[in-house]
């Protein structure tokens, strides 16, 4: 028989335990949405008219250090033009491709999301569709643009926060 000092606590002598932290209190419960991302990032979106030249679009892309412009008419988004679209056109047509109207190169009717869309759903759509930018539309109005970089950055921040909370739970 083990010495008394090695015996476990008797069942009737157990005191109620309290927990200062639980998995529920330490893990993020909120679903991050596009609206959350736009609140931090802002809603600035650069646009161009469909009749403008690719040369004009390239100038905007370079001057603003961006990878995409939305092609807009008065009634809304008609397309999206990315750096990749421009590179393909220049490869096909050389310098003459720069004088092509944006409407000839743009991806027409791009997919969109709304501010309440969860970021994980946006990430899946971008990955499955193999595109890097998604216009954000609410009630038929453009309210922002999210990139794959924006989404990944927000998701990494969320995962780092969850890891920190888990460490706090383990350490106590």
From TrEMBL:
PROSITE patterns to which the protein is assigned, alphabetical: CBS
Glycosyltransferase found in the keyword field: no
Gene3D superfamilies: CBS-domain
InterPro entries: CBS_dom, CBS_dom_sf, CBSX3_CBS_dom, Diverse_CBS-Domain
Keyword entries, A-Z: CBS domain
Lyase as UniProt keyword: no
CDD domains to which the protein is assigned, alphabetical: CBS_pair_bac_euk
Domain CBS: 38-96, 106-162
Pfam families: CBS
Annotated region (Disordered), positions in chain: 1-24
Protein name: CBS domain-containing protein
């Amino acid at each position: 028989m083990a010495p008394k000092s090695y015996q476990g606590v008797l069942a009737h002598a157990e005191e109620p335990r309290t927990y200062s932290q639980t998995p529920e209190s330490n893990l993020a419960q909120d679903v991050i949405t596009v609206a959350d991302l736009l609140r931090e990032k802002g809603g600035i979106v650069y646009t161009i008219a469909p009749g403008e030249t690719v040369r004009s679009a390239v100038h905007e892309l370079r001057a603003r250090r961006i990878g995409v412009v939305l092609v807009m008419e008065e009634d809304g988004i008609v397309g999206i033009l990315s750096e990749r679209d421009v590179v393909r056109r220049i490869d096909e047509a050389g310098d003459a491709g720069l004088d092509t109207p944006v409407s000839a190169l743009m991806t027409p009717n791009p997919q969109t999301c709304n501010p309440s869309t969860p970021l994980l759903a946006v990430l899946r759509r971008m990955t499955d569709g193999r595109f890097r930018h998604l216009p954000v539309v609410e009630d038929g109005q453009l309210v922002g643009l999210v990139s794959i970089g924006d989404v990944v950055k927000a998701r990494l921040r969320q995962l780092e926060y969850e890891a920190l909370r888990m460490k706090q739970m383990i350490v106590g």
